[in-house]
Amino acid sequence: MSSAHTLVGHTFDEKYEILVVIGSGGMGTVYRARRIGMPREVAIKILNAELSSKQFVERFRREAEALAKLEHPHIIPILDFGQTGDYLYLVMGLKKGGNLSQVIRNGNVPLGDVQRYTEQIASALDFAHLRGIIHRDLKPANILLDEERNTFLTDFGIARRLGEARLTERGTVVGSPTYMAPEAWRGEEPSAETDVYSLGVIFFQLLTGKAPFEETNVARLMHLHLFEQPTPLRKFRPDLSEDFQRVVSIALAKDREQRFRSAGEMARAVRDAVRNYRAPSAAPAGKDKTQVLPRTQPKPPPDRAQRLRDAALPNVQPPRAPSAAIPTPLGADEAPEPVARPDNTRLLIIGMGIVIVVLLILIVILLLR
Q1: Active-site option among 126, 137, 155, 195
Q2: Is 227 inside a domain boundary?
Q3: From CA 288, how far away is CA 31, in angstroms rounded?
Q4: Do 38 and 83 share a domain, yes or no?
């Protein structure tokens, strides 16, 4: 096909009405289509005509037959496949929620969603691995989402059964460079751990929005995957605990024997990390200079009754010098009370005596009358 849009509006293989282009790549173009006579829409991947060599057709048919048997809740089902003229095609279930690369670009993926995506992808990988199929091109663009944000693995376009004869030359590098495990760069036999490495890269991206190794030069990127360690997670996410770093370190181990033995094992480690996560409390913007003084008990009031008693017995009080102050319960830092004050008690006693004398005189006068 000279253009990805050449089939839009046409009927393909007398069965599918091509509606619109969904995406395209080096191997072919994916269209949204409608099966003639049925209301259901599907996705149809039509491979480029120049790929239809005898060798490629053999690999395609083998792959299509194997994938048609992968009936799993998180794997896009293969509904039909075949060849018409020079074109090979795969008909798959259609998902309308975009793909995981769009989620990563949007950023700020909640940890609960990171865990859910990882568990769903891992369950699909384990299902395929147990049936001898390695994906070998696991990347966010090959993980589709439905409208409920569930993930679905697709495009096993270069997957193959373990143990079958290779149809590509030994040493051929197959995959997407950002997600390729070291053994894939070396052209070695793939294994379940090869897909685990790619899942580890995706996990890193979900957490940070960045790939562990970002390099436009392919040779330099290969060197990074083969020999360098990725930037620590906490440089991008200081809030993440060591549990998350441990998941990344194991999943991205250079030696496949040091990685998780299965995608499911990695998913369980992710679940534990998320479960044990505690969000850090908000730190103050600057140093708080406010001083909090210790609480003190209120000072007791002066004993007024004692002062009245002292005033009623003036002969008992010692002579008062101008500089001497009567001790009071007040604090040492408070000014002393004035020494000189009116003797109200004595005046009261004298007044009461006068009243009593007047009353006695009145009584005597009354008695004499």
Answers
A1: 137
A2: yes
A3: 61
A4: yes
Structural domain span for residue 26: 1-94
Do 105 and 82 share a domain, yes or no?
Answer: no
Question: Are both 90 and 120 inside the same structural domain?
Answer: no
- Domain termination residue (choose one: 279, 306, 332): 279
Q: Do both 32 and 123 map to the same domain? A: no
Q: Which sign does the torsion angle of CA 102, 106, 110, 114 carry? A: positive
Closest by CA to 173, choosing from 193, 156, 188, 153, is 188
Q: Are 57 and 64 in contact (CB under 8 A)?
A: no
DSSP track, 204-237 = HHHHHSS-SS--SSHHHHHHHHHHPPPPPHHHH-
Phi, psi of 337 (to 5 degrees): -70, 150
The verdict on whether 137 is a catalytic residue reads yes
Report the alpha-carbon distance of residue 260 to residue 250 in Å, rounded.
6
Taking only the tens of pLDDT, the chain with its 369 residues reads 445 567 899 999 999 999 999 888 767 899 999 999 888 899 999 887 766 677 778 878 887 888 888 999 999 999 999 888 888 899 999 999 999 999 999 999 999 999 999 999 999 999 999 999 999 999 999 999 999 999 999 988 555 545 444 444 444 555 689 999 999 999 999 999 999 999 999 999 999 999 999 999 999 999 999 999 999 999 999 999 999 999 999 999 999 999 999 999 999 999 999 999 998 875 555 544 444 444 444 454 555 555 445 544 444 444 454 444 444 444 445 444 554 555 667 777 888 888 888 888 888 787 776
Amino acid of residue 192? A
Residues 87 and 127 in one domain: no
Judge if 87 and 138 occupy the same domain: no
In this structure, the answer to whether residues 75 and 44 fall within a common structural domain is: yes
| Residue 299 falls inside a structural domain | no
